[in-house]
Amino acid sequence: MATRPSSHQLLVLAVALALVAGLFLLPKGIVKPKEGKNELNQQTAARTANRDNGAAAPSTSSVEGGMPAGATPEQPHMAVAPEQRREISALLAKYSAERDPGVKLRLATDLAAKYRGVEKFDSAGYYLEQIAVARPGEQTLQRAADAYYEAFSFATTEERAKMLGAKTRELYERVLKNNPDNLKAKTNLGMALMASDNPVAGVSLLREVLAADPKNEEAIYNLGILSLRSNQNDKAVERFRELTVVNPENANGQFYLGVSLALTGAKEDARKAFTKAKSLSTDPGFTASVDEQLQKLN
């Protein structure tokens, strides 16, 4: 049965599109794919990956702080619908005024959910981090780390990627101190390290994940994306073929198998992969990206 990619899958697709299109200033040791007729459309990538722009900057201040650092009362939700803005503003007022620690944590949970609902992931991460500060543990830390990772994945500038990547790494490292066998945390930490001065450590972490779980879809997928970024197109084909064997209904895997095959000149195989990817999703943005790539094969 065909499955629609999850919001997180589409999120990672967005950042991968941006990376392959060369919108990021890539970290040392990682080079852009060569430009040519198979390059992905930069405007589409920028439009898709811009979802978290304008959100409040991450902060490490305590749960007593009412807002992420550098934010104004309007900034975190300036692009939000009026009704949602009113709901968030009311919660922020309650959060700032509340003195009972338990109630304040419940309000932080509500704020995180509201910000996630409007895709302001770093603002959600801020409030989830406040919960983790008050109640440290693997699960609370991971929820905060996951939110910052989503914001990191949408970053469209080098500065923002580094800032959010640093916060993401800090939190996932704390998760792994609680549980060194947490493969999701290790996978996401590996990708966050790609925006650091030590991207090789990120690749090593992803390989560690595959050593522990050879069928880990996220690790295979991310290694495929990194192969594309470093112009190792044949290696990318291997990774995405492996992913589509593990899960033939992984829409992003089929899409990037098509991308990597096209870059190696295997147009007919690329067309089959893109067609398969399109059959797995009804998401308009995803299918538009597939149609664009199919058109480039003509």
Automatic annotation (TrEMBL):
UniProt cross-references to SUPFAM superfamilies, sorted A to Z: TPR-like (SSF48452)
Segments annotated as TPR repeats: 217-250
Pfam families: TPR_16 (PF13432)
UniProt keywords, alphabetically: TPR repeat
UniProt keyword Signal, yes or no: no
Record keyword rRNA-binding present: no
Region annotated Disordered, chain positions: 36-82
Stated name of the protein: Tetratricopeptide repeat protein
Origin species: Hymenobacter cellulosilyticus
Source taxonomy: Bacteria, Pseudomonadati, Bacteroidota, Cytophagia, Cytophagales
